[in-house]
Specification:
about 70% helix, mainly alpha
Length: about 130
């Protein structure tokens, strides 16, 4: 539990803060668990929040190369959710790379299917060998 006046950690049994002498109300004692959680959430620095935001952008780039559909989804979610410039640029790059990868994979699969059909026309029993 933390003192509402000075912010230092105090025991739940204390009636007065040992640091500043402020009286601890019953409401503070009842809400001590929630105030501890709120205090810890407030302690998060902007650098930590920015690091979390960059993680989404970096993930979108990594998945754009490895699994383009997943990278596309993460990139779109990142563009919608985050507003900072760094994260938006990473997510936009992931979106572009995912789109290019999907088009390249589609073109390659079409050429492979055409090659199989051409080979099957040249050798009628070719499809049975595959």
């Amino acid at each position: 539990m933390f003192c509402s006046n000075c912010g230092k950690e105090i025991s739940n049994k204390d009636k007065y803060c040992p640091y500043c002498g402020c009286e601890i109300s019953q409401n503070e004692k009842d809400g001590s668990e929630s105030s501890d959680l709120q205090q810890k959430e407030v302690m998060q620095t902007p650098e930590q929040e920015k690091r979390v935001d960059k993680t989404v952008g970096v993930l979108s780039l990594v998945f754009a190369f490895v699994f383009p559909l997943v990278g596309l989804i993460i990139s779109i979610c990142g563009l919608v959710k985050y507003k900072d410039k760094e994260n938006k640029s990473l997510c936009m790059a992931g979106l572009i790379i995912s789109g290019i990868d999907i088009i390249v994979y589609f073109v390659i699969s079409i050429f492979l299917m055409l090659a199989i059909v051409a080979q099957a026309n040249y050798h009628p029993n070719y499809l049975f060998l595959i």
